[in-house]
Amino acid sequence: MQNKSVEILLVEDNPNDVELTLHALKKHNIANKIEVVRDGEEALVFLFGEDTQQELPRLILLDLKLPKIDGLQVLKRVKESPKTKKIPVVMLTSSREDKDVVESYEYGVNSYITKPVDFEQFNEAIEQIGYYWLLLNEIPGT
Q1: How far apart are CA 43 and CA 77, in angstroms?
Q2: Largest CA distance in the chain
Q3: How far apart are alpha carbons 57 and 9 in whole angstroms?
């Protein structure tokens, strides 16, 4: 496997969840470069904006309930675009509603994970996400 810098786009509006996620990723040496955006609109600008020098992330961690543009709409746009459709998207959310899970998969999410309330469980979940999606998973054309 080619040695590449690991890039994650974290789309999360809750500052506490951002801090916990970044801490967990860094603790396990999972990511060298993490970009954080706070709402769906920022995520779409990051992915589809005019900055043609911007590298696409290898993984998107996406919250469902976001300001401006919700996570489902971001997911739909990511999976519809030939530019981004191969990027794995993990919905990392507190929603346990069946409707949200079903819609996420209908729009092409790669994984749906409910955020654990307990810090140690959350830390473990982030570690497993990072190892699987960034180290074990093979993405076509990479």
Answers
A1: 10
A2: 40
A3: 6
State the average pLDDT for the chain. 87
> 121-138: per-residue pLDDT in tens?
888 888 888 888 877 777
Q: Are 96 and 65 in contact (CB under 8 A)?
A: no
Q: If DSSP states are collapsed to H, E and C, what string results for the chain? A: CCCCCCEEEEECCCHHHHHHHHHHHHHCCCCCEEEEECCHHHHHHHHHCCCCCCCCCCEEEECCCCCCCCHHHHHHHHHHCCCCCCCCEEEEECCCCHHHHHHHHHCCCCEEEECCCCHHHHHHHHHHHHHHHHHHCCCCCC
Q: Give the Cα separation of 55 and 75 in Å (integer).
A: 18
**Token pair in block for residue 115:** 């955020």
Using one digit for the tens of pLDDT, what is the confidence trace for 5-42? 448 999 999 999 899 888 888 888 877 789 999 999 99
